[in-house]
Amino acid sequence: MESAVHQYIPSDYLPILIQFAAALGFVIFALTLTHLLGPKRNSEVKGAAWESGIESVGDARTPISYKYFMTAILFVLFDVEIIFMYPWAVNFKGFGLEGFLQMLVFVTLLMAGFFYVIKKGILDWE
Asked: Which residue ranges traverse the bilayer (predicted)?
């Protein structure tokens, strides 16, 4: 009886390596070309740091409330669950009762984390 395991040989990876080399070559070519052809005018205004068209004022190392970072991290955390819920919703009928119960456990754990965040007052701004 033959084994169903396929032994990969280096030539199997050749198309991937060619595509990677072509992409890398294009990036190097584009960066080199823009560097050689682009204008080279340096000035004090061009070298100044700007943020959204507004000139920087003050020290960039001023303390920022941790609540800003917590809100950003929580947004990412609670936004990423959509990545798991969307495929589940698309294949809802195929997963049946077992898939529904697994998603129920997932949403329950997610809601437990959300209520913990609310109880701790992390989303309360003063």
From this structure: 16-37, 68-88, 100-118
Kindly state the tokens that stand for 117.
């965040």
Domains, the chain, ranges and CATH? 64-125 (1.20.58.1610)
Q: What is the pLDDT of residues 74-112, one digit of tens each?
A: 888 888 888 888 888 898 889 899 999 999 999 999 999
Whether 125 and 67 have beta carbons less than 8 Å apart is answered as: yes
Strands (E), 10-111: 50-51, 54-55
CA 83 distance to own-chain centroid: 12
Distance CA 25, CA 93 (A): 46
Nearest Cα neighbor of 81 from 106, 100, 104 is 106
Is pLDDT at 1 greater than 60 in this prediction? no
The rounded distance, in Å, linking the Cα atoms of 8 and 17 is: 15
